[in-house]
Write a structure and sequence with these properties.
mainly alpha, single chain, four-stranded parallel beta sheet
């Protein structure tokens, strides 16, 4: 093969479609170049030029294509210091005028000066290739500048992580979770639903939120953090905690049925099979299957207004939702990340409670203004003393707790722990107070009800041969998020809170299905602040009448 012609063809080539063909010709020329050089059929320097061109061809081709005149000059054997000048700026070869003083032919034998120049050229060649490769990597890793592009980059990264850690076979993943006792016991098909569903739906849509039955709920939604997003419900290892099992989430998941996955939507579907909005399966918040679950891992109280805005936009865009006509139930739970990773930094502890009050009321005001016919379940955040004081936790939990909850678990903030406990108690009281605020009282198409089943929640115990032990199977592999079994407990407890009057609601959870309340002829409605007062007045009146 004519090496000179190959080099000339390469440097003259400007059609990128032919680049691959030229590159292959150059690669094929290299072995023959070495043989011809040993047989002294070609000059050593011509072979070296070819090597440099091929090295450059492995990077971005457009930056190494040269104009015809300069290409012919270098291919015809310009001295090495001219070639070195070219590699100082690899994106553009120098014009021929830069090498006019170097037009003499190379001598048959390399001089000492040429050897030095040759070494310098090779160093510059390697530097140019490495520098260009580094610039390409930086371009690939450079974050986009526009918010929309940045969001797309972030969503793509999350999808890649979720796909990488997810089990290849989901059924096999569920079997692994079952072996770890992380799933609720499946209810046999011959066991009927605990409630009489005929009492669960009004003959016609009610005109007041205080006369709302479970089957009257047409649309369901949820705001919150990773507990609502379903992080690690069926995780068989720590990496899988990053998977969002939204379809199993206690307040918004609708995967399967109540027999396999007890969730609030799976309960409500027994009363109204046309329920809309529940998450369908494992999904990220920006994916279609998440539906009206806008909860985000790592979300804090300050993120609630944004989530509310997103929820309203999704509902208005949904073809099956009539925002003005359908009755909607929205569940909110927030606080875990505020307690664990926010209140111990930059003096935020002092204003954390009042900031939460302000952000929560801003969220509720927005929902009231944009979502008529809505009942909001404001779930009181759990007090994380339960995690700090837990005993006999698996060894891996020490590490995960220090990573996920440094404010409470880290030794740096141990002296402030009691202060943080007081903040969490006041946070819980804010949730209770906001739910009875007068701005949400007396309305017929909107209400807020505090659901306090996590107020005094504690770990359940199991009997073993060595005595009662804490049942940590309600937690995921990181001992922070809930397992599917834990989500079933939460769903059962939330459902019971809906069926209990305000002022007499349960403040802790129990074993799944050990207590499962149902609407009755006397109390068919979901309890609100208003109908709880009316019901209490009616009960007092009936007692007085019986006393006479």
């Amino acid at each position: 093969m004519d090496i000179q012609n190959s080099v000339t063809e390469f440097v003259q080539q400007k059609d990128l479609q032919c680049y691959g063909h030229v590159k292959r010709k150059l690669e094929e020329a290299l072995p023959k170049c070495a043989v011809d050089m040993k047989q002294k059929k070609i000059k050593r320097d011509d072979c070296l030029i070819l090597h440099i061109y091929v090295a450059g061809s492995f990077t971005e081709p457009a930056e190494y294509l040269v104009d015809n005149e300069a290409g012919r000059a270098f291919a015809s054997g310009e001295p090495w210091h001219c070639l070195a000048l070219a590699w100082k700026s690899p994106a553009r070869w120098p014009p021929p005028s830069r090498c006019q003083s170097c037009t003499r032919r190379l001598p048959d034998r390399p001089t000492r000066r040429m050897r030095v120049a040759e070494g310098a050229a090779l160093v510059l060649c390697c530097w140019a290739v490495a520098a260009h490769a580094q610039s390409r990597r930086q371009r690939l890793l450079r974050l986009p500048s526009s918010p929309r592009a940045l969001l797309g980059y972030y969503e793509g990264l999350r999808e890649a992580i979720a796909k990488a850690v997810a089990p290849r076979n989901r059924l096999a993943g569920l079997r692994d979770a079952q072996k770890l006792n992380m799933l609720q016991p499946e209810v046999p098909s011959d066991r009927p639903f605990p409630c009489d569903t005929r009492l669960g739906r009004s003959p016609s849509p009610p005109d007041s939120v205080h006369r709302l039955r479970p089957g009257d709920i047409d649309v369901i939604a949820a705001l919150g953090d990773s507990l609502t997003a379903g992080y690690g419900n069926v995780a068989a290892n720590l990496l899988q905690v990053a998977i969002e099992n939204k379809g199993m989430s206690w307040s918004i998941g609708g995967e399967g049925s109540w027999r396999q996955f007890l969730t609030l939507p799976n309960i409500l579907k027994e009363f109204n099979p046309r329920l809309v909005g529940y998450s369908l399966n494992d999904s990220l918040s920006h994916q279609h299957a998440s539906q009206f679950n806008v909860a985000e891992g790592g979300a804090m109280s300050r993120d609630l207004p944004w989530q509310a805005n997103l929820l309203v936009r999704r509902m208005r865009a949904h073809p099956q939702v009539d925002v003005s006509r359908h009755w909607k139930m929205v569940t909110i739970l927030i606080g875990g990340n505020d307690f664990c990773i926010d209140m111990c930094y930059e003096g935020r502890a002092a204003g954390a409670v009042e900031s939460h009050r302000r952000e929560l009321m801003e969220t509720l005001d927005y929902l009231r203004a944009n979502l008529p016919r809505t009942i909001v379940n404001l779930v009181v955040a759990p007090h994380l003393r339960i995690l700090v004081e837990a005993e006999d936790m698996p060894g891996r939990c020490w590490l995960t707790h220090h990573v996920e909850c440094p404010c409470l678990m880290g030794s740096r903030f141990q002296a402030q722990r009691q202060q943080f406990f007081d903040i969490m108690s006041r946070w819980q009281q804010v949730d209770l107070d906001v739910a009875i605020d007068k701005r949400y009282a007396g309305l017929e198409d909107f209400t807020v009800v505090a659901q306090p089943f996590l107020l005094n929640a504690s770990f359940l115990t199991v009997n073993t041969s060595s005595g009662p032990r804490t049942d940590f199977t309600v937690l995921s592999q990181d001992c922070f998020h809930l397992s599917q079994k834990g989500d079933a407990l939460a769903a059962n407890a939330l459902w019971n809170n809906l069926m209990e009057p305000v002022g007499n609601k349960s403040v802790e959870w129990q074993e799944t299905f050990s207590r499962f309340l149902c609407p009755t002829q006397q109390s068919p409605y979901i309890y609100t602040n208003e109908n709880s007062r009316r019901g209490a007045s009616s009960r007092r009146r009936r007692r007085r009448q019986r006393g006479r």
